[in-house]
Amino acid sequence: MTFTHGSYTVAWVCALPLELAAAKAVLDELHPLLPQPEADQNVYTLGSVSGHNIVLACLPAGIYGTISATAVVSHLMSTYPNIRFGLMVGIGGGVPSENPDIRLGDIVVSKPTDTSSGVIQYDYGKALQNGHFYPTGFLQKPPPLLLKAVAQTESDYILGESPFGEIMSRPSNLQKEEARRLFRRPSNDKLFHPTYNHVGDWSSCTECDQSQLMARPGRLTKEPRVHYGLIASGNQVMRDAKTRDLIAQGRGILCFEMEAAGLMDIVPSLIIRGICDYCDSHKHKEWQGYAAFAAAAYAKTVLIQIPLQEQGQQTADLTESVSKQRHWMVPFYRNPRFVGREEEIATIEEFFKNGQPKVAIGGLGGVGKTQIAIEFAYRLRERKPAC
After folding, report:
1. Residue 232: helix, strand or coil by DSSP?
2. What is the pLDDT of residues 274-291, one digit of tens each?
3. Does pLDDT of 28 surpass 60?
4. Residue 220 burial by CB count (10 A; 0-12/13-18/19+): exposed, middle or buried?
5. Is residue 321 part of a domain?
6. Is the same domain home to 68 and 151?
């Protein structure tokens, strides 16, 4: 079968090579690469799951966060014009509590509410008294098709009819021993008191005071549990338990990560995170491989639930939503506190009205050139959403 750029309908985005490896491991088929525009500097992996053709993309090595994710997805959407929805799949840090009882290796899936898309950008908003923070702005919710598939996946999981368990057993069949070891489930899951900071070498907690461990009941099975709720996204690694709890308090945040907010307004997306640490000073890499594979296995389970004929019969609002993003490649968020500069913006607009294809804004560093350009771009988008 011959595939073209228009054959691919799912964008699967990862931040780390480890996450990309897990994604490749669950593909049913790998497809030959296709040529791409010179301006698109992404490197893709093409394949399929249950008949759905998928574009896998990974962020540049060492360059993480929402802005990097926005840039990668913007180019992907331009090169593959029929992408219907996105999956951001990989690892994240869990917020421990009694209910839900999140453990290492568990999975957190973004679930929208009346007031959020299932993802908030926790470093973009208003600082309040007593160290509290109020996020501003709202991100797009996942499309109804994905939410229906998630509901079906959840019900099958409850009844023990999900293919998730079978997919999780696949690492044992990988040819390379290093890969089998990387995705294997570790034995130690330690949660320290939030006021106790890490001691000694960062690779393990062997020098930490074991009396500071939190007592938690055992589980009957080692299979990951899946939790549905709010994911907090930001541009910094969360590795402080006090800050974690301060931001999560009262919001029901289950997980912290660094890229999801960069996707949600480019393509309607579902965020899937395997929990590899507790966002505290005891963060290390022991659980990353297993958590990455668990997230990839869940993503595949969701894709299996989506009928091929329904994917080709998306509702008009989803098609319109994606088409509005097709040519939007601005990797920055709008500043809600932008004021003034109306004269400069009017001048730029006059240049474009007179047929000028490009405009350069000059000035000293820090005077607001970038903010003017961003504000103009968003205003133009509001007036001409089809562009």
Report:
1. strand
2. 999 999 999 889 999 999
3. yes
4. exposed
5. no
6. yes
